[in-house]
Amino acid sequence: MWRTAAFLACACLTAQDHAEFDVASVKPNTSLGNGISIYTTPGGDLTATNVSLRTLIAFAYDIRDFQITGGPKWMETDRYDIFARPPHSADEPPTSPAARNRLTHLRMKALLADRFQLVVHTETKEMPVYVLAIGKNGPHLSPANSENPQRGINGQRGLMTCTGISMQTFAERALTPRLGNIVLDKTGLSGEFDFKLQYADDSPPKPGVEAPAETSSDPSGPTLAVALQEQLGLKLETQKAPVEVIVVDRAEKASAN
């Protein structure tokens, strides 16, 4: 299913779109710093600081770290700084954020193949995932304010503020990054909602490792799983589902330039 979606995403790019960067600088980062960043401009420029090849693969293929297997150990330890600029032409760049993201991902794939000699293939594996479902007492959610044009997720330490988002977006864009594993929306709820979720900033268990408690006795605050139940009337369950993974067949260190 994901492979079909990726194909359709590529197909909707027009022939005038160039799926390669025109200029790219790749330099090893030896700062030993902890901070990493990847950001792009509306014009298509990309700047990555102190990133590993593993992080770059996850970015290029729009997947999570646990969906990458194989490859040499230095993929995680060696860090790089990258600046890349797309071709400049009379054609207008894609105007929608989704179209710009698709084009950036295609260009990054080409850069990794050229500068890191990256060769990958995809496989589908049965893996434990989270399922977001309705809790035993039903959902506690308010429909989004139709007069508020703002839509999005604002995440802080121990607090998520969600404005005008669907349960699918909540599962994919808020919970999946926080839990470090895929979260599937099985609530059956349609529409968009406004809500806040406050929880203790703990490290949640992996799916299938430990069943979350349904009530909280921790004075420092509820875990994420408990907060979902108590504040939103939702629950996390675990099950196995087919997950597409990227298998690294070949990768070479990029030389400075």
Tell me the number of strands. 12
Q: Uncertain regions: pLDDT < 50 for 5+ in a row?
A: 1-17
Structure classification? alpha+beta
Strand order of the largest sheet: 1-5-3-2
The whole-number mean of residue pLDDT values reads 84
- Determine the oligomeric state from the structure: single chain
Shape descriptor reads globular
Please tell me the total number of domains: 2
Strand content: 25-35%
Q: What is the CA-based Rg, rounded?
A: 20 Å
Distance between the termini: 39 Å
Order of helices and strands: HEEEHEHEHEEEEHEEHE
* Contiguous helical run count: 6
- Share of helix, binned: 10-25%
**How does the major sheet shape up?**
4 strands, antiparallel
Tell me what you see in this structure.
This protein has 257 residues and is of the alpha+beta class. It has two domains: 2-116, no CATH class; 126-243, no CATH class. The chain has helices spanning 2-11, 53-60, 74-77, 97-115, 167-179, 224-232, and strands at 23-29, 37-40, 46-52, 68-70, 79-85, 119-134, 142-143, 152-156, 159-165, 183-185, 193-198, 234-250. The strands form three sheets. A four-stranded antiparallel β-sheet has the order 1-5-3-2. Strands 4-12-6-10 form a four-stranded mixed β-sheet. A hairpin with a 2-residue loop joins strand 8 (152-156) and strand 9. Helix 2 (53-60) crosses helix 4 (97-115). The two termini are 39 Å apart. Residues 1-17 have low confidence and may be disordered.
